[in-house]
Amino acid sequence: MQTYILGIESSCDDTSAAVCCGNILLSNVIANQDIHREFGGVVPEFASRAHLQNIVPVVELSLQKAKINKKDISAIAFTLGPGLPGSLIVGVSFAKALAMALDVPLIAVDHLDAHIMSHFIKEGFDDEKSVPEFPFLCLTVSGGHTQISRIGDNFEIEILGRTIDDAAGEAFDKAAKILGLTYPGGVLIDKYAQSGNPDFVKFPEPKIGGLNFSFSGLKTSFLYHVRDNLKIDKDYIERNLNDLCASVQYAIVNALINKVKEAVRVTGIKEVAVAGGVSANSFLRETLIAIGKERSWEVYFPEPRYSTDNAAMIAVAGWYKYVKGDFSGVDVAPYSRSAVNSK
Ligand code: KG4
Ligand code: ZN
Questions:
Q1: Residues in CB range of 167: below 8 A, 6 or more apart
Q2: Whose CA is nearest to atom 2 of ligand 1?
């Protein structure tokens, strides 16, 4: 008999459900919530309401696309945290109720661990994509978190460094907001930067030792730069949009890459993976792949569709926990903040 895992992701503003058979993905459905755009950021109350409306049709569609019936589900994996409490509660409650109704086990998945597991999604029996070898380093860069970790055999995760203030995705989104771009702005900065000059403005490098990250100083200098120049030229942003995007993107990516170099130096590990929404960034991809070639590192990026939030990574992370018999009870409660020592 085949093992089918239904994965559910509702930690922020995307409602997603996916089905995998082992680590082979059969379907991945995502309902984005456009409602937040006009507010320049995610409005938690609107997000939980939209999850409530989306969750049933999204799960039904994921089963249809996987060509399975509810009764075929072997276990239900779901994001327990970190994320917005109201959003998490919708996915967690739905997963618990469905698992009870179908009498199948529940598998609680940490959202950040799942981003790392996005590297192990297979898209078919003949998917020959190479996966990171243990131990490997993973730079996880999302809208809410930025961390670098060492992943050992059995997927043991040791966090080596993390941001002390803003996340990399947040830095992209805040810079985009300063430029008047719509939320989430990371992808737009990526787009405009492609025709811009990264040397147009040189922003100071974050001064933070070890493997931790800091982006709030960069955000402030970007804000002051734009504000001061707008006083002299009211069309400053319009005239220089591409160059401003390229310059701020360069500063964020450079800060990330310097920490990856340091992590490789400290650990001696040359298997380097990147995960999370910001791993979709084309400049980060090109630069790190080029550096990897130069320094004989193996560099791994997920397919861009598995970089940003999705339930495929939850389903596949669930499969690896299923194999270990790592199930959870119906009494588990969502957590909004990152667990300090994830496993
Ligand atoms: O992992 P994710 O989808 O959600 C969280 O877990 O937070 O990451 C979302 C973040 C947002 O900040 C978004 O602006 C950023 O990823 N992002 C990008 C790109 N695509 C998404 N940032 C830079 N370049 C991109 N191409
Ligand atoms: Zn995420």
A1: 141, 142, 143, 144, 145, 146, 215
A2: 277
